[in-house]
């Protein structure tokens, strides 16, 4: 969506102008208040606090309205500098108000959110972290620019010169922001205009990039450490998952504040300290701060953005202990700056600013690496709010402490920083031990084999991403396995099948059910005719199925649009009649007996409804010359697989329930009919489908129903199990794409491509319904798989499939549909009540 120029605006230009604009006041504000207006230390502290408080406001607003906050903040910053330029130079009030308004230009949080959003889906998960580091480097370069020129400008042109300087840099940021918004809108319009082409190109590119990454990983397989490979796997999954922030995320937010404590004291009282203690002029102050900022920028960029720097830091301390190293340097630097001679103060100041910029960059990188894109939209501004709030504290207390003992702010800042460093070191050690223990349990490796550097990853990442140690999935494999692995993913080299365009009459089995009725509805909506066969069994309330059929007939009453047959697919005579009379050439087989747990209780009905019925349909399809046969399989075929993503290339010969076994059998039969009769067959492995008209026995529909009515819901296990919940419209899109493409024989995963834990799922249901759930916790059920997540790369590449609906949005839509159909006062509400009452009576009996 974003071209290189748009990205440069977010990563380079806006951060540069922001850094220059927000650091200018530190050159002249305190000095002017003291030397020109002669304010007391308490009043100076209040004035500086007003400026810092304005920065807090903008950072807080970016939590909710980042773009509006960014635009208004930049405009206000420009207005503040204009106020300073035009005001009466002998009047303190407009000067203080104008400078305080400049504080609203604190817009870094918004820019960080743009960068995280732009790069969150990049195949190279490290790119987003690198861009955030480059972004902060641009801020630091802007700071150097402000410090290096601002002091001399103030010395020569006083406040007017600084104000003009501020107007130029603030205007530059506003121009860059407007350009970014315009380009963003332009790209979005272009995307909407040619959506189909873009999806196909993006799918092909995604497949190519993934192939290149896998090939590169395999070539380096023997040389890459276990920790590094595991990190790549974890963060690729974690970036777009639904996992919320943990205590370690909030700890980093607080650490941003402590990191800002020393620099806040230094910038609020440092200029006066140099003027009064060492008798230096403002030009020298600007140069000194510029040298410190330049040194900090250089150290941060070299250490975090170059291979040499990364290796050097790796020898000193691995993440997150590199933050402890930087924080320790900050504490030592500020204490050295308290030395009562100018050379010592200069050395301390440079050490302080070097480690300060390094610490801020490392914390930005760590927070980005252990935070999902959705959580980062909260945590990034939260970190800045903490920083600016501490700046308010330093602004209020710094001048007061300076008035007591000039070096007291330095002593306090250094002591607090070193104490905080010790505390986070201990907490990081605890987290490391927990993470290594869980990794050892997941992988079967000893704790000694797992490097301590893995401590930066939260345990929630590991719980989300199950790791499989085995041939081709092993992260510590042997080189001889590479050839076998390279034989996988042959679909990447296959020629893409062009979609059939034009009218079709499609047999939709199970057309009265959840997925089948939606497929039939979309086929009819695009102009195709459908023939539905459904036995309308009592697996769940038949009134729901009859309502689905009635909806289709009422919506498309024209003769021939919807033909409905009620009966068993295994009835040979009935099916022969349908194929002969309707002259079918397209089959979409959605009918099946569903449910993992019921299949354990009565496996024979699954053999009849799934295996026998599918065999019947394939036999008739080859007999009557069907052009394309698409059928529903299930993610249950993956059984207890521990792979990070379930891929179609995975061997699935160990199903853990009769239902899964029946679906795998159907896939084998499909290949047999393709091999014997050249029948074009496509099997679709659905991943936990939900949405309006959903089966009432499925968790999304059942939980929404129970929570709405204040009934208890049953949670099996501890809530860490995960499912790839996929909204019905995305599934139907994949089904129609499969119908239109006559593949010889293919199996595709259709899912969202990211997992949602049961705990998160329940939380989203509560939010969608607007009511607290009553939860009954039960043991894990036999036959249930702990984790499902689809690798949809093949479907993206060969079908152009791309799931669009997030889980939160899907639950919101489903809950809204439920309230409309079954809410209080609805004509359907009695159906729900009677159905529930009958189940309760049956259970009591």
TrEMBL record:
Please, which domain of life does this record's source organism belong to? Eukaryota
Residue spans crossing the bilayer = 12-31, 43-65, 71-88, 136-157, 163-183, 250-278, 284-309, 321-339, 345-364, 410-428
Q: Provide the alphabetized UniProt keywords.
A: Membrane, NAD, Transmembrane, Transmembrane helix
| Domain NAD(P)-binding, residue spans | 507-814
Instruction: For the region Disordered, give the residue spans.
Output: 193-218, 824-845
Q: Which InterPro entries match?
A: MFS_trans_sf, NAD(P)-bd_dom, NAD(P)-bd_dom_sf
- Residue ranges under compositional bias (Basic and acidic residues)? 208-218, 832-845
Query: Which Pfam families does the record match to this protein?
Result: GDP_Man_Dehyd (PF16363)
Instruction: Tell me which Gene3D superfamilies the record gives.
Output: MFS general substrate transporter like domains, NAD(P)-binding Rossmann-like Domain, UDP-galactose 4-epimerase, domain 1
Isomerase as a keyword? no
- Similarity remark: Belongs to the NAD(P)-dependent epimerase/dehydratase family.
Name-wise, this protein is Putative integral membrane NAD-dependent nucleotide-sugar epimerase
The source organism is Fragilariopsis cylindrus CCMP1102
Q: What is the lineage of its organism?
A: Eukaryota, Sar, Stramenopiles, Ochrophyta, Bacillariophyta
This protein's encoding gene? GAE2
């Amino acid at each position: 969506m974003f071209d290189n120029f748009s990205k440069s605006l977010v990563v380079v230009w806006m951060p540069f102008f922001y850094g220059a604009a927000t650091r200018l006041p530190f050159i002249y504000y305190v000095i002017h208040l003291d030397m020109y207006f002669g304010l007391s230390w308490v009043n100076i502290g209040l004035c500086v606090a007003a400026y810092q408080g304005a920065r807090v406001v903008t950072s807080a607003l970016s939590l909710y309205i980042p773009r509006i906050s960014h635009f208004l903040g930049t405009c206000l910053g420009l207005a503040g500098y204009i106020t300073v330029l035009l005001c009466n130079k002998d009047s303190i009030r407009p000067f203080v108000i104008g400078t305080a308004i400049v504080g609203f230009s604190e817009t870094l949080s918004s820019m960080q959110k743009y960068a995280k959003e732009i790069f969150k889906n990049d195949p190279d998960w490290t790119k987003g972290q690198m861009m955030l580091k480059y972004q902060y480097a641009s801020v630091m370069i802007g700071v150097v620019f402000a410090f290096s020129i601002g002091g001399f400008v103030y010395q020569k042109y006083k406040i007017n010169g600084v104000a003009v300087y501020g107007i130029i840099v603030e205007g530059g940021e506003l121009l860059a922001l407007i350009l970014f918004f315009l380009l963003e809108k332009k790209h979005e319009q272009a995307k909407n205009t040619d959506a189909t082409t873009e999806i196909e190109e993006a799918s092909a590119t995604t497949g190519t990039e993934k192939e290149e990454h896998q090939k590169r990983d395999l070539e380096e397989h023997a040389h890459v450490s276990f920790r590094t490979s595991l990190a790549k796997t974890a963060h690729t999954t974690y970036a777009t998952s639904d996992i919320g922030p943990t205590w370690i995320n909030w700890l980093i937010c607080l650490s941003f504040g402590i990191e800002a404590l020393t620099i806040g004291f230094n910038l609020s009282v440092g200029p006066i300290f140099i003027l009064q203690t060492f008798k230096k002029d403002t030009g020298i102050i600007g140069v000194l701060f510029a040298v410190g900022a330049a040194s900090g920028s250089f150290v941060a960029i070299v250490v975090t953005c170059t291979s040499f720097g990364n290796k050097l830091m790796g020898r000193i301390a691995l993440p997150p202990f590199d933050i402890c190293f930087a924080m320790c340097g900050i504490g030592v630097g500020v204490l050295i700056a308290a030395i009562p001679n100018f050379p010592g103060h200069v050395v301390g100041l440079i050490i302080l600013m070097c480690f300060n910029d390094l610490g801020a960059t490392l914390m930005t990188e760590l927070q980005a690496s252990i935070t999902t894109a959705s959580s980062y939209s909260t945590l990034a501004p939260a970190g800045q709010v903490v920083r600016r709030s501490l700046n308010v504290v330093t602004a209020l207390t710094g001048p007061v402490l300076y008035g007591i003992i000039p070096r007291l702010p330095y002593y306090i800042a250094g002591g607090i920083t070193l104490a905080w460093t010790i505390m986070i070191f201990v907490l990081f050690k605890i987290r490391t031990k927990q993470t290594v223990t869980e990794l050892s349990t997941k992988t079967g490796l000893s704790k000694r084999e797992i490097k301590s550097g893995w401590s930066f990853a939260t345990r929630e990442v590991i719980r989300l991403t199950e790791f499989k140690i085995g041939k081709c999935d092993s992260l510590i494999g042997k080189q001889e396995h590479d050839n076998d692995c390279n034989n996988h993913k042959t679909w990447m080299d296959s020629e893409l099948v062009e979609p059939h365009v034009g009218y079709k009459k499609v047999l939709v089995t199970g057309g009265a059910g959840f997925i089948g009725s939606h497929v039939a509805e979309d086929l009819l909506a695009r102009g195709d005719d459908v023939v539905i066969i459904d036995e309308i069994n009592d697996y769940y309330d038949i009134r729901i199925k009859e309502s689905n059929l009635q909806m289709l007939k009422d919506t498309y009453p024209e003769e021939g649009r919807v033909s409905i047959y009620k009966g068993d697919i295994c009835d040979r005579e009935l099916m022969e009649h349908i194929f002969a009379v309707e002259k079918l050439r397209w089959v979409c087989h959605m009918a099946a007996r569903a449910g993992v747990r019921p299949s354990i209780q009565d496996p024979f009905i699954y053999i009849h409804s799934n295996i026998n019925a599918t065999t019947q349909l394939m036999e008739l399809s080859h007999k009557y010359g069907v052009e394309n046969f698409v059928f529903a399989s299930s993610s249950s075929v993956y059984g207890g697989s521990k792979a990070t993503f379930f891929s179609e290339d995975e061997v699935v010969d160990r199903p853990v329930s009769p239902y899964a076994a029946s679906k795998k059998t159907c896939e084998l039969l499909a290949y047999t009919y393709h091999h014997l009769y050249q029948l074009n067959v496509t099997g679709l492995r659905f991943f936990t489908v939900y949405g309006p008209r959903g089966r009432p026995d499925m968790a999304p529909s059942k939980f929404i129903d129970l929570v709405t009515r204040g009934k208890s819901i049953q949670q099996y296990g501890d809530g860490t199990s995960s499912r790839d919940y996929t909204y019905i419209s995305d599934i139907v899109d994949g089904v129609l794409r499969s119908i239109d493409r006559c593949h010889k024989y293919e199996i595709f995963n259709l899912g969202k491509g990211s997992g949602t834990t049961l705990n998160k799922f329940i939380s989203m249901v509560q939010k969608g319904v607007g009511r607290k759930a009553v939860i009954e916790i039960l043991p894990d059920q036999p036959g249930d798989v702990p984790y499902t997540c689809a690798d949809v790369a093949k479907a993206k590449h060969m079908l152009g499939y791309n799931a669009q609906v997030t889980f939160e949005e899907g639950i919101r839509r489903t809950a809204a549909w439920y309230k409309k159909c079954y809410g209080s006062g609805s004509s359907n509400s009695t159906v729900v009540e009677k159905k529930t009452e009958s189940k309760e009576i049956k259970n009591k009996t």
